[in-house]
Amino acid sequence: MRQIELLYFVGCPSWAHAWAALGQVLIEERIDAIVRLRDVADLEPGALAGFAGSPTIRVDGVDLFGYTGPPVMACRWYADPPAQGWPSIDALRERLTAAAARTG
């Protein structure tokens, strides 16, 4: 079963949109996962590795959109259309179904 985390901080409002979109895709695609909403203020510094800004979605500890750099304490911008502060339903669907199909 996949472990999915949505990491955010309170000062960035886009996380709520990402949370709703994530839930919608998980339900529609019937992806079996343990999902956690995590405020980065509650995390140890080591747990912030790969945090690309709020909101960041990680599957099994890996950024769903491929970010591998140092932690970024800013609001995140997703470039895929329609270019906004949270991933589109289509981008989430594509990446989550690919992650769910991987073994491990």
In short:
The protein has 104 residues and is α+β, with helices and mostly antiparallel strands. The chain has helices at 14-28, 89-101, and strands at residues 2-8, 33-39, 56-59, 62-63. The chain has one domain: Glutaredoxin (3-Layer(aba) Sandwich), CATH 3.40.30.10.
Describe the structure.
The protein is an alpha+beta fold. The chain has one domain (2-101): Glutaredoxin (3-Layer(aba) Sandwich), CATH 3.40.30. It is built from 2 helices and 4 strands. It has a 4-stranded mixed beta sheet, covered by helices on one side. The longest helix is centred in the N-terminal third of the chain and has 15 residues, at 14-28. The chain is globular, with a radius of gyration of 13 Å.
Topology:
Layout lengths: L1 E7 L5 H15 L4 E7 L16 E4 L2 E2 L25 H13 L3
Parallel strand pairs: 1-2
Antiparallel strand pairs: 1-3, 3-4
Strand order of the biggest β-sheet:
2-1-3-4
Give the second-level CATH assignment, the architecture: 3-Layer(aba) Sandwich
Strand content: 15-25%
Radius of gyration: 13 Å
Number of helices: 2
Structural class: alpha+beta
**What is the third-level CATH name, the topology?**
Glutaredoxin
Domains, number = 1
Tell me, rounded to a whole number, the average pLDDT: 93
Shape: globular
CATH class: Alpha Beta
Order of helices and strands: EHEEEH
Main beta-sheet strand count, sense and barrel state: 4 strands, mixed
Query: What is the helix content?
Result: 25-40%
Low-confidence stretches: none
Extended strand count: 4
Calculate the terminal CA-CA distance, rounded to whole Å: 9 Å
CATH superfamily: Glutaredoxin
